[in-house]
Design goal:
Elements (H helix, E strand, L loop, with lengths): L1 E6 L11 H9 L3 E6 L12 E2 L9 E2 L1 H13 L7 E11 L2 H7 L4 E5 L8 H7 L2 E4 L9 H12 L32 E2 L2 E2 L9 H19 L1 H6 L4 H8 L1
Parallel strand pairs: 1-2, 1-6, 5-6, 5-7
Antiparallel strand pairs: 3-4, 8-9
Helix pairs in contact: 2-4, 3-5
Bound molecules: 3-(1~{H}-indol-6-yl)-1~{H}-pyrazol-5-amine.
C-alpha cells in the first residue's frame, strides 16, 4: 500500500516511522509519502488560508494549493486513482470495519486540514471518504490520519507478527476484548483467574467469550445489538 499525506505540519507524521507502521515501511508493505501543502503555494508568504465567506471565526484553507497538490500526487501514478481520505469531525465514524475496507485499497491519500477546515469545493471535487475518529474536535487532521493509518497498517499482510492476529482484535467479532493477564500469578493479592491457568483451551475460549459479552453489555450495549450471538452467548447474557 502507498499512502500519501498532505499537511502543513509534515513533522506531525514522524511517528509513522516508529514501531509497527515503521516496520511495515521497512518491509515495503507500506510506503508513506508526506507532502508539505505549502510546496503548492505561489505567493511569497506561502499562504494556504483566507477568511471565511459569510464571516465567523478563524480561517478556511484555500482551494488552489489543495487542488494543485492532489492533482500532482494523483498524476504521479496515472495508471491508478488513489482513494482520497479527509479526516473531519463531520465525517463517517471510523470503525474496525472501515479500517478493513481501507486496508484493501492499494493507494490512499490523506488530506490533513487545519484552521476551520478545507474549502468545501475541494472536498466535493476530491474526497472519496470523509472520516471522523470521534465526537470531539482536534486542531487538525494529522492526529486523525495517524490513528487511521495505524489501524489500517496493522491489517496489512505480515505486519502483525505470528503471535498476534487481527482476527483476535476487539471488534473483529463485534464485541469488546476480554481482559488479559500475564505473570505474576498473584499481584497485589489479586490472582489470575484459574481457568486461564488450567490448560483447558476450550474452557479458556468459553471464559473469554463470556467476559467479552459481559463487558460489551456493560460498556457498549450498542455493539451487542449488532453482534451475531449464539445460543450459548444468549445463555451467558441471561444468566
Ligand atoms: N474526529 C475529528 C476530526 C477532527 C478534525 C479534522 C480535521 C480538522 C481541521 C481543523 N480541525 C480539524 C479537526 N476533529 N475530530
Amino acid at each position: 500500500m502507498r499512502a500519501d499525506v498532505v499537511t502543513i505540519f509534515p513533522a506531525y507524521l514522524e511517528p509513522l516511522r516508529l514501531s509497527l507502521v515503521g516496520r511495515a515501511q521497512e518491509r515495503g508493505t507500506l510506503e508513506v509519502r508526506t507532502h508539505d501543502l505549502r510546496a503548492w503555494t505561489s505567493d511569497v508568504h506561502r499562504t494556504v488560508d483566507d477568511a471565511p465567506y459569510g464571516g465567523g471565526p478563524g480561517m478556511v484553507m484555500r482551494p488552489e494549493p489543495w487542488d494543485a497538490a492532489l492533482s500532482e500526487i494523483a498524476a504521479s501514478d496515472p495508471a491508478r486513482r488513489p482513494r482520497v481520505v479527509v479526516p473531519t469531525p463531520a465525517g463517517r465514524p471510523f470503525s474496525q470495519r472501515h479500517a478493513e475496507e481501507l486496508a484493501q485499497e492499494p493507494w490512499l491519500v490523506f488530506c490533513c486540514g487545519r484552521y476551520e477546515g478545507i474549502d468545501a469545493r475541494v472536498i466535493e471535487t476530491w474526497a472519496d471518504d470523509e472520516i471522523s475518529i470521534g465526537d470531539y474536535v482536534l486542531a487538525g487532521g494529522e492526529v486523525a490520519t495517524l490513528v487511521i493509518l495505524e489501524a489500517v497498517a496493522r491489517l496489512l499482510p505480515g505486519v502483525l507478527g505470528n503471535s498476534a492476529s487481527a482476527a483476535d482484535d476487539s471488534f473483529s467479532d463485534g464485541l469488546l476484548e476480554a481482559p488479559a493477564y500475564t505473570r505474576p500469578q498473584v499481584w497485589r493479592g489479586v490472582e489470575v483467574p484459574a481457568v486461564l491457568r488450567s490448560g483447558d483451551h476450550a474452557a479458556v475460549a468459553r471464559w473469554r467469550r463470556a467476559q467479552a459479552l459481559r463487558r460489551t453489555v456493560a460498556r457498549r450495549p450498542d455493539l451487542v445489538a449488532q453482534a451475531e450471538l449464539s445460543d450459548a452467548d444468549r445463555a451467558v447474557l441471561d444468566a
